[in-house]
Amino acid sequence: MLAVKYKQQNQKYNSNNHCSNNIGISEKMIQVVETNLGKIEYKKVGKGQPILFLHGGHADCNMPIAGFGIDLNKYNLIIPSRPGYGNTPLSTYKKPEQAAELLSSLLEFLMIKSVIVIGISAGGLTAIAFAAIKFESVKRLLLISAITKRWMQKDNPKYRIARVFFYPKIEVVTWWIVRLTAKLFPKTLAHSFFKEFSLLKHQKLTKFEIKALRDMLCLQRSKQGFINDIDQHLRAKILTQVKIPTLIFHSVHDASVDVEMAMHAKYHIKDCQLFLFENKWGHLLWIGRDTNSFRDTLNTHLLESAR
Fold it and tell me: Which residue of 161, 162, 256, 279 sits 20 to 30 Å from the alpha carbon of 229, by its own alpha carbon?
C-alpha cells in the first residue's frame, strides 16, 4: 500500500473562486492513499476515539466541521472524500455498498479496528451500508439530516435540474457563479439558498448565518460525486441488517431531505432512536444560533458511544 501526501492548493478556494481564504481550512496534511481496493483521499483531525465522518453532497474531506461542536481533544475524525468527490475516483464505487468496502480498506490501511460512524445528508446511504456490512467495525451509527433511500425520482424537476447544473463538465462553472455571487451579493445568495434548506418562511438572516453559509459554499464542488449521489438507492433490506445502536438527527423543517427519510430509517432499523429538531435552518442543523440543542444531543450520545 502506498501513501502520498500533499497540501491542498490555496487557489482552489480563494481568488479563483471569489471567496476569502480565511475560512478555517485546516493546514494539516491531506493524504491520498492507495489501499488494496483503490485510491482514496482523507483527512484526520483530532485525537481520541475514532469517528468515520462521511460528508454530504457537494463536499469532500475539507468540509467545515466546527458547527458540529465535536471535541477534537476527545475524538479523532477520519474524514474521507467519498467516491467522486475531492481526489477519490468514482471508479467502480458508485453504489453505497461498494463505497463501504473502499472505506473498510481505508480503516484497514490506518490499522483502525473500531469506529463510530457519522453520515451527513447524502453520505447517509454509505454510512448505513457500512454499518450493515462492516458491523463488526462499528460501535454506533449516527445519521444527521441523512438520505436513507433513493433521494430524487427521475421525473422530479429537481432531478433534471441537478443533472444539468451539476453535470461533471458543467459543475465547475455553476460553482464559479455561486462563489462570485457570494462575494458580490452574499445576503441575496443566502436568502436564495435558505429556501432550499428550510421550510420556514420570512426569516431574518443574521450576519453570522450569512457568513457561515458563504464559508460552506466556498468549499463546495460536485465533481462526479453529486450526479452519482442522486442516482443512488439502498434496499430496505440493508437497513434491517443494521444491528448496532443507531441515532438519527433530523429537522422537521428540512426542505432538502424530507423528514420522511428519518422515519423510513427509524422503521427499518431495530435499535434506533430518532431526535427531531425545530431549528431555523432546517437541513443545516449545524448552522445558526439555535444549534445548541442539536450539538448538545449529538455530543451527549458521542460520549455514550465512546464508553
Answer: 279
What digits encode the pLDDT tens for the residues 38-70? Answer: 999 999 999 999 999 999 999 999 999 999 999
pTM of the full structure:
0.92
Q: In what order do the strands lie in the sheet with 38-46?
A: 2-6, 30-35, 38-46, 75-80, 49-54, 115-120, 138-144, 246-251, 272-277
In a domain, 197, yes or no: no
Domain count, the chain: 1
Closest CA to 121 of 261, 1, 233: 261
Task: Identify residue 259 by its one-letter amino acid code.
Answer: V
- Residue 198 located in a structural domain: no
Domain presence at residue 99 = yes
Measured in degrees and rounded to the nearest 5, phi and psi for residue 115 equal -140, 160
Q: For residues 37 and 17, what is the distance between their CA atoms, to the nearest angstrom?
A: 33
Structural domain boundaries, residue 279: 2-154+222-306
In which residue are the cell numbers 445558526 written? Answer: 288
- 71-84 burial, b at 16+ Cβ within 10 Å, e below that, comes to eeeebbbbbbbbbb
We report the CATH number of the domain holding residue 144 as: 3.40.50.1820
Distance, CA of 129 to CA of 245 (rounded, Å): 14
Is 108 inside a domain boundary? yes
- Is residue 121 among the annotated active site residues? yes
Choose between 195 and 13: higher pLDDT: 195
The catalytic position among 81, 104, 114, 121 is 121
HEC states along 234-254? CCHHHHHCCCCCEEEEEECCE
**pLDDT per position as a tens digit, 202-226:** 999 999 999 999 999 999 999 999 9
